[in-house]
Design brief:
single chain; 458 residues; mainly beta; Porin; 16-stranded antiparallel beta sheet; three-stranded mixed beta sheet; 19 strands; 45% strand; globular
């Protein structure tokens, strides 16, 4: 057995041990080293379950990749590092009290260690270990390191965030991020036809890079503008621990623009964000709007040039003590579309009832969701839990016939349908660690799936 295999198996065992440990400890402590009353941030919002690192959206926040799905626009720290740490603007604009801000700034730095078990159809069983230092310099800056390992993933992400909590409502903030991850991605999986690398190895996407994002609130109603730049070196490999590169699959379909199997992508990013929900964890009214554009700068041997434009709008409509949720989102890419950067459709944050990326991989997409949420127990008398509700939902998505426009045509090669819808129902539990969702869905292909997640979808 080689040293690489031994190391890989050791990381897998470590991930499972961390997961089992956290399953016992998480119900008792929000984060090791912090009490329930002093937890300074929503850890699940800092690291949501599966896929959201770059604007417009990614299939897995468990790894900081920039392959894009249709699960919504999750700003790079715009929600997790900014709005989740800063109270969301209420439905009626209201300036935060200076006394409250001063109390936050007087707190000493806090350190938390958070192990979490995870599972996804792409990465399998894996675990994450978050090392988080908050309120640095008594100004609520945050330094967090995430380590990840498991069945089909390994990686690390380091972030430093200034959430602009220091004083006024219009103070700017920023975030710096470094990452290195390796795992399979849904562009090269699922579908009716399996197409792997030579010797039937799965394609692992190796992403190494970093980004800087600047945030500026511009209106009392909570409109925030973001601008930044990012760098990625994207390589296709056949396992977690190897230096070997692959530029095409076993059928000769290209996986990278570079003939060496290694692309370089540099982008300039702009975003617009507004969150008018009455709660980030249990919203019943208001709306959330996100718009993003990303312009690549041709560098390196790949010489990739594209512009990505995406938007998402979610409306919460109260009806007595019930809520209707409507989400509509879409996007398109002008220019070069590397397969690992295309939009993915299907999965727990896209069309439930399908696996991640099972519907399609396209240059454009449109997606819609309708949910009906109703209370089951509004005053739940359980430890660390306060409410229980039910939900009925329907999802639909389409790649608008753009699957054959993606370089290498990964969706077409794997016979992905390009359109799909799903129906389902579930329950939602409001806990001290955020909402917990258990959902059951069936697709129009009559496939069944069960979904268990922590954190709001919209």
């Amino acid at each position: 057995m080689t040293a690489n295999i031994i190391l890989y198996k050791s990381l897998e065992v470590l991930a499972l041990v961390l997961g089992a440990t956290s399953a016992l400890l998480i119900p008792r402590l929000p984060a090791w080293g912090q009490g329930a009353e002093t937890t300074p941030l929503n850890l699940q919002s800092l690291y949501p379950p599966a896929g959201d690192w770059l604007l417009p959206a990614t299939p897995s926040l468990d790894s900081p990749q920039s392959s894009y799905s249709a699960e919504g626009l999750k700003g790079e720290g715009l929600e997790r590092g900014i709005s989740q740490q800063r109270p969301n603007p209420p439905i009626q604009p209201q300036r935060p009290e200076l006394e409250t801000i001063e109390e936050q700034l007087d707190e000493e730095p806090d350190f938390a260690i958070v192990p979490l078990p995870r599972y996804s159809s792409i990465k399998g069983i894996h675990g994450t270990l978050d090392l988080i230092l908050t309120n640095l310099g008594e100004n609520d800056h945050t330094l967090d390191l995430r380590l990840e390992g498991g069945e089909r993933t390994i990686g690390a992400t380091l972030r430093y965030t200034d959430p602009w909590l220091e004083s006024g409502a219009f103070d700017p903030g920023y975030q710096v991020r470094l990452f290195n991850t390796r795992s399979p991605e849904s562009q090269f999986l699922e579908g009716d036809r399996e197409v792997n690398l030579i010797h039937d190895h799965e394609a692992w996407v190796d992403r190494l890079g970093g980004s800087f994002t600047f945030y500026q609130p511009v209106t009392p109603s909570g409109v925030v503008v973001s601008a930044g730049a990012s760098y990625q070196r994207v390589a296709i490999r056949n396992s977690a621990f190897t230096d070997r590169l692959y530029a095409s699959d076993r059928l000769g379909n290209p996986l990278t623009f570079s003939e060496q199997g290694l692309d370089t992508i540099v982008t300039l990013n702009l975003g617009l964000f507004q969150d008018r929900r009455n709660s980030s964890e249990w919203p019943t009214q208001g709306y959330r709007f996100q718009l993003a554009t990303e312009q690549s700068i041709p560098v390196g041997s790949a010489d990739i040039l594209f512009n990505r434009l995406s938007a998402s709008f979610t409306q919460f409509v109260p009806f007595q003590n019930q809520t209707f949720v409507f989400n509509l989102q879409g996007g398109t890419i002008f220019g070069d579309v590397p397969p690992y950067q295309a939009f993915n459709l299907g999965g727990s944050d896209s069309v439930r009832g399908y696996k991640d990326g099972e519907i399609g991989t396209g240059q454009s997409y449109i997606q819609g969701t309708v949910e009906y949420r109703f209370p089951l127990i509004e005053d739940l008398d359980l430890p660390y839990s306060s409410a229980l509700s039910g939900t009925v939902f329907g999802d639909f998505a389409s790649d608008l016939g753009s699957g054959d426009s993606v370089y290498g045509e990964p969706g077409e090669v794997r016979n992905k349908p390009g359109n799909g819808f799903g129906l389902g129902l579930g329950v939602r539990l409001l806990t001290d660690f955020g909402p917990v969702r258990l959902e059951f869905a069936v697709s129009d292909q009559r496939d069944l799936s069960a979904i268990f997640k922590i954190g709001e979808r919209f």
